[in-house]
Amino acid sequence: MNQITVPIKIGKILAMIILLIILIGMSIILGYTDTSIKLAYEAFTMFDGSNEHLIVQTVRLPRALIAASVGASLAIAGVYMQTLTKNPLASPGILGINAGASFAVVFVLTFFQVSSLDIFTWVSFLGAAVAALTVYFIGNVGRQGLTPMKLTLAGAALTALFSSFTQGILVTNEAALDEVLFWLSGSVQGRKLEILTSVFPYLAIGWVIALIFTPIMNVLAMGDDVARGLGLKVGLVKITVGILVILLAGGSVAIAGPIGFIGIVIPHIARKLIGTDHRWLVPFAGLLGGVLLLAADIGARYIVMPQEVPVGVMTAFIGTPYFIYLARKGINKG
């Protein structure tokens, strides 16, 4: 792999920051209701209570910020999961974390009619944590211990199990089906800013830990034996990374539902563009994840206008061809 110099890496990160800001602006302006840059600016500087100003402030801005935050969180979680497990297929979706969080939310919504955002968030985190711990435990069973193949199979099995439970609950409860069907597809539409603010502290903690741990992940990527030889407490690092993934993935599902492919595709694209050094890879992947989810959400508004396609469908539409490309090329060589 060609070495990428530091000035080029800095330039790429700055370019990604600029692109993220541009897409946030486009997300605020574009949609079914006609708006303009001037109108959006006036909505924040000279708010008059008009329908257009209300849409900009209460619908478009929260939607843009949520898409950027969720995209970044899922991408960073994917980077850390792939490094931790030495499995290029690892992601919150593949390893059952999204399915576990989704099942927990649907279960509580159906049987307890919970509407509190705080409870909703913690339930999602709990589901993600149970799924992650279960996959890790199953993957460790056997003589060889934890291997990428066993981890992938355990994740696939748990995803199928939780998905079956979720579908079983929804089949027997039409009211719950109507309430969560759009959410289960993965969407940032109609989400209020309060949802993001209730979860944001947990996402922010995950981002900070992710940035602090980038040098440690470079060491861990060399292998557990090498990392131990260099004095790294591998067990403690893995526990911390597991908590990080639960914070980022569980928080993202609590906000927007299970959005797939961001966590598995973005890390591979980011490695090709900026290299494997986690000090650069993690922030770049986070920015790229936000960019992709914002772009997908903007596109979702126009495909069947005036209706909207859930952004989870758009990310699957974008991510599936690249995932197939990785599989055909030989993902371990990517």
UniProtKB/TrEMBL annotation:
The chain crosses the membrane at residues 12-32, 64-81, 93-113, 119-139, 199-221, 241-269, 281-303, 309-327. GO terms for molecular function: transmembrane transporter activity. InterPro entries: ABC_BtuC-like, ABC_transptr_permease_BtuC. It is found in: Cell membrane. One of its GO terms (biological process) is siderophore-iron import into cell. SUPFAM superfamilies: ABC transporter involved in vitamin B12 uptake, BtuC. It is a multi-pass membrane protein. One of its GO terms (cellular component) is plasma membrane. It comes from the Bacteria. Keywords: Cell membrane, Membrane, Transmembrane, Transmembrane helix, Transport. Pfam families: FecCD. Belongs to the binding-protein-dependent transport system permease family. FecCD subfamily. This is Iron ABC transporter. It comes from Bacillus weihaiensis. The lineage of its organism: Bacteria, Bacillati, Bacillota, Bacilli, Bacillales.
